[in-house]
Amino acid sequence: MVGNVWQWCNDWYGSYSSSPQTNPTGPTSGSYRVLRGSGWFYDAYGCRVASRGNSIPYARSDGYGFRVSLDLN
């Protein structure tokens, strides 16, 4: 699901390695958390899974949200 609101991720924001990766997690600490997917106020190009932003962890916005999930493994 993309394009409703930016989704908070548990990952800290930072640069990725230039080599191909599967599920990169970024640095182990930092000042900003990752936001993914874009929000309702962006154009079609911005509303994609590859969109990645960042914000301070205590920021609030009507364009931020999260998805509850359960790992059954």
Account of the protein in words:
It is built from no helices and four strands. It has 73 residues and is an all-beta fold. A four-stranded mixed beta sheet has the order 3-2-1-4, with no helix packed on it.
* β-sheet strand percentage: 15-25%
The largest sheet has its strands arranged as: 3-2-1-4
Instruction: Note the main sheet.
Output: 4 strands, mixed
SSE order, one letter for each helix or strand: EEEE
**Terminal CA distance:** 22 Å
User: Looking at the structure, what is the overall shape?
Assistant: globular
Q: What's the helix count? A: 0
In the predicted model, the low-confidence regions spanning at least 5 consecutive residues are none
Total E-strand runs: 4
Arithmetic mean pLDDT: 84
Structural class: mainly beta
Work out the radius of gyration.
Answer: 13 Å
Helix coverage percent? under 10%
Regarding quaternary structure, how should these chains be classified? single chain
Q: What's a quick, concise take on this entry?
A:
This protein is an all-beta fold and 73 residues long. Helix content is 0%, strand content 23%.
Descriptors for this entry?
73 residues; mainly beta; 4 strands
